Each structure stands twice: as structure tokens, then as C-alpha cells.
What we know:
The chain has helices at residues 53-59, 84-89, 96-115, 119-134, 143-157, 164-170, 175-188, 202-209, 213-226, 229-232, 237-252, 258-265, 269-282, and strands at 19-22, 27-30, 36-39, 285-287, 299-301. By secondary structure, the chain is mostly helical. The protein has three domains: 1-47, N-terminal domain of TfIIb; 96-188, Cyclin A, domain 1 (Orthogonal Bundle); 198-301, Cyclin-like (Cyclin A, domain 1). The strands form two sheets. The chain has a three-stranded antiparallel beta sheet, with no helix packed on it. Strands 4-5 form a two-stranded antiparallel sheet. The radius of gyration is 29 Å and the shape is flat.
Amino acid sequence: MAVITERIRKCPECGSKNVITDSRHAELYCADCGIVIAENIVDLGPEWRSYDEEQASKRIRTGPPMSYRIHDKGLGTPTPGLPARTRRLRGISIDSSDKTLAFALVEIDRMACALGLPNNIKEATSVLYRKAMKRSLIKGRSIEELVSAMLYITCRQYGVPRTLKEMAEVSRSPLKKIRRAYIFLLRRLEIKLAPADPARYIPRFCSKLGLSAEIREKAMVILQDDDGTGMAKGWGPIGTAAAAIYIATVLSGEYRTEKEIAKVAGTTEITIRDRYKELVKRLNIDVLSPSRDGKFLGVGIV
């Protein structure tokens, strides 16, 4: 019997690449000219057969790849059907630190799913939690606060636009405590985050406000014209993005109030108003005063 060490991709007779492996007859042949390239080949697949996914999952003897999202990284051997007393006597029960880790990983998965975050964010946040646990930064602190802050840090590192307020909405901890945990982790883990790009928040905010693609593009152009000056001055990316959207709505006549934009962006009306005034002044955008009913009388660009 022969084992094919290198996969044959080309027929030696006619040069065709239509090479077929016939596992039933243990042959490798060319579908165009019919020549048998190799025979008595060894089937390296499983010795069992399955007719649906459920049957295959029961017969397969290999587990999923290693993942930091599972407290034992998916390398443990499950023993289903054993009572709790038997598991304790065999030393299968996990200690308190593993229970804490398992709970934190479940929280990470729950919050990430609620925020619509991909699996790579969950994996990176799980690695960050393990790193903090190794440095003994977990003891005496709320798991929900730390997990929320770590998820926000990971989103910042991967350029995923999420705000602290959105983290607080799906977390069991208030915004104030999450912000405190965020600052604590940055200092103790020596994490340096680049300033967030305000343009990343524009599509999400516009979508939540029900604004058109024209508003989104105009807000992006305003931020491009600003050329990062606001970031250099230490402006928050959320307030800058909200101000750019506000200016774009005014210029396009698709008006939204400061209160509406502030509610979606998770910032204050005062912040939007201050950023709006500075952007208008620096970019020479001439916006006429609004009337008493809140609608602008007219706009123009100098």
C-alpha cells in the first residue's frame, strides 16, 4: 500500500489538473485521459462514517482549537454524567480562581455579543484579563468593572468604535466605576492607546440618527478638512464626531438638534456646541443663526 506524501495536482500523461481521488477503489486517476496515477493509496481520514453533522459530532474524537475564551483554554477532558461528589473525589473540581476566571470570560462573551463585537475582540479581551489576573490586579475589585474597561480598551486597540457609555449600557456597573477601572488598567498594565479617530464614529452615529449618506460623507469631509487639529488639541473623538455631524446636518438642511445628537453620541450638548463653534471658526464655515422654532434660516460657506 502506498501513501501519497505530496498531493499530485497535475496528470503526468496529459498535463490536466483534473485529478480525482477515488477513496472507494483507493486510486488516484485523471478525469480527462483516464490514466490511473496511483493505486492502493492509504485513506488518512477517519475510519468511521457519518451521514449528518449531529452524528459526526458524536463520533469525532478531536476537540476544537485552543481558545483563551474558555477558562481551561479548551484543553480539558470533559467527563459528562459524573455527579459532583465523584468529580471532587477525582480532583476534577476547579478552584475559586478558575471559577472567577470562568465567570469573567462569560461576562466578556455576554457583553461582546450585546455590542455586536467580533470573536477576535472577545479573544483579545480574554487574553488581557488573564494578563491582569497574572499580575494580581483582579483581587478586591469588581469583575464587571474590569471586564467592561478591558473590553473598551480592546475596542480602542483594534479601532472598533465603541464608547464608554455603550459599555455601561450592557454592563452591570455604572459609567463612573468603569471609567475609574479603565484609568487604573491603563496605568498598571502600562497600556498606551493612540487617540481614537473621530471619523470611525460617524457611520454609526448617522445610522442611529437616521441620516442620509450625504450627511455622512459631508461630516467625513469636515473631519478631513480639520486634518487632526482637534485631536492635537486633546479633543475627545466622540464630541468632535458629533459636532461634525451637527455641522453637516445644518449645511444640508437635514436638521437634527444638539440634544438628539448628544443622546446618540453619549456626550453633552455643551461639548457639541463648543466643538461646533471652534470647527466653524477654524474651517471658515458661515452658518446663519437659527430662528425661534429651531430651524436655520440659511447656510453658507466662506
